[in-house]
Amino acid sequence: MPPVQYADVNGVHMAYYEVGPREGMPVIFCHGFPELAFSWRHQLRAFEAAGRWAIAPDQRGYGLTKGPDAVQAYDIEHLTGDIVGLMDHLGIEKAVLCGHDWGGIVVWQAPLYHRDRIAGVIGLNTPFMRRAPVDPIAIMRARMGDEMYIVHFQKPGEADAVLNANVRKAMDFFMRRPAPGEGAASAGLASERTGEESVFPLVRMVQAYDPAVDPRPFFLSDDEFEAFVETFERTGFTGGINWYRNMTRNWERSANLDEMVRVPSLMVMAEKDAVLPPSAADGMEANVPDLERVLIKDSGHWTQQEQPEAVNAALLDWMGRHFPK
């Protein structure tokens, strides 16, 4: 990673990493849960080699960016506002935003909240999602049960305590490739429950997890894995979980938003992502009319780290055609 820098933006002291010349269209990389700016190390290296300006922040509540205590300080207005505040700090009028997992939600929502500041959007794994007809937590609770991880995350402190109790085990559970032949059903991630059991009861799964018998291969080196473990042992998981605890608030406050993403966009799908499969992006063109898609083969959920060369090639090709240097 390049040297860490800091900016006081939108009420937080934000850590960020920057590469490339300060010219042309910059790209800001937004990580997901439970990740860090470090998750974009391969992309920063590739963009620097290509002479592209790129920035990756530790977002609010993660890594070296300490977040406020108040849960409501992690809503989508704050999260998108942090990115625009970082742009202001760097003197950037417009940027392309690239987000993975929860960062994907941030970058798809950013042009709805800050239309004049976003030049383009790249979503990794996470598609644009229209506003639900009712509270999304109520939908998930009815369809997937009380222990489905996003529903469970709504209980203050409970999931945090389980994940914080053994960060090494939790990160070992998260940071693996899919097992050979693994799909949504075999991973226990079917879209709806068929009995009393909840879908994807992550907290219970982590509690019962034994790394010694996990057949899924690693995609991190030992040093990379230790970087994640050491960071989350220091910070805990509450900051990231607080993003989930604002899903109802985000839904309530977005009733009057125009849901059209009116900038050039790229959707990068991962062939073997059981949580956000390629089919999740079906129908996006209705809200994202200037959309291209690319499928990354043989990748699970952690696409930019599992298949960095394929991801880098797709991102740089799209940037070269839409925002040439």
Automatic annotation (TrEMBL):
InterPro entries: AB_hydrolase_1 (IPR000073), AB_hydrolase_fold (IPR029058), Epox_hydrolase-like (IPR000639). SUPFAM superfamilies: alpha/beta-Hydrolases. Transmembrane segments: none annotated. GO terms for molecular function: hydrolase activity. The keyword Transferase does not apply. Residues 26-306 form the AB hydrolase-1 domain. The keyword Hydrolase applies. Pfam families: Abhydrolase_1. This is Alpha/beta hydrolase.
